[in-house]
Amino acid sequence: MSDCNRQVWLVTRPTGWPSEENFRLVESPMPVAAEGQVLVRMLYTSVDPYLRGRMRERASYIDPIPLDSVMQASSVGRVIQSRNQKFAEGDYVGGMMGWQEYAVAGEREIRTIDPKLAPVSTALGILGMPGLTAYFGITEILQAKAGETLLVSGAAGAVGSVAGQMGKILGMRVVGIAGGEAKIRWLLDELKFDAAYDYQAESDHRARIAALCPNGVDCYFDNVGGAISDGALLNINERARIAICGQISQYNLEKPEQGPRLLFQLIVKRARMEGFLVFDFAKKYGPALAQMAEWLRAGKLINRETVVDGLENTPRAFIGMMRGENTGKMIVRIAAE
Asked: Is the pLDDT of residue 8 over 60?
């Protein structure tokens, strides 16, 4: 084991789009586990859109990441030293351990991961926060029903791809919106979406959505906001439900686009729009993960990861994810299992 710990720090706050200059790779002393803690060697770490909000001086719903400190993010690793009887050396664990090679954590900060259930990297994606977000967005917020039409924006991403697949499992007609022909082919050929279109090749989203959703939109799982969501709102049915999961088209704008807009549609259609955070459903994580794991084992859910190797490449992976370079979940592999 090394006597130093490499970490990626946030050193400046981004203005507009983040750049690699906002981060720095540093070496720090190896952390030491105190009584009740474990020392974890990191295997994978996550890059997620919500981290962009935490880089601001004032975050909206969660504390901002302090400057000159390790980037806080979900990670998966293996216990290499335990001073807590609930964890043994060799256990796989996950938690908010950040962009670094080693971390110490207490039992309230991590959870055990069963490698027999699925690859441990899935704890950052389909069997982690993104998968749970999709699950509760579909079941709790949209209250999706068989026979309805589900429209998903950001449909080839970590959350959207799972939300769309869940819609198919529940018997819905699923239409996806993603960027690039390769992603559209993946949605149609492998995930079996009923229809999909490339937003990069379209300017009239209202017309394109209308063509692919001839019976209107009953449920809209919104990951992007902006012009795409305008087009979706103009195609909703009466009593439609809209789940606001993300607004990635707006995250890097210094001056947000004008809004709110088109909300009269909620009046005309007697529709419901609701934002949500996955943490709202923390008490239901256990049963949800059990169901997702069952679907994954049965082949009803397909997992795809875009893997970047090397801790030093984590900032580049994060920026690439924000630009849509990933299909499925983007993760960074820090060390071999």
From this structure: yes
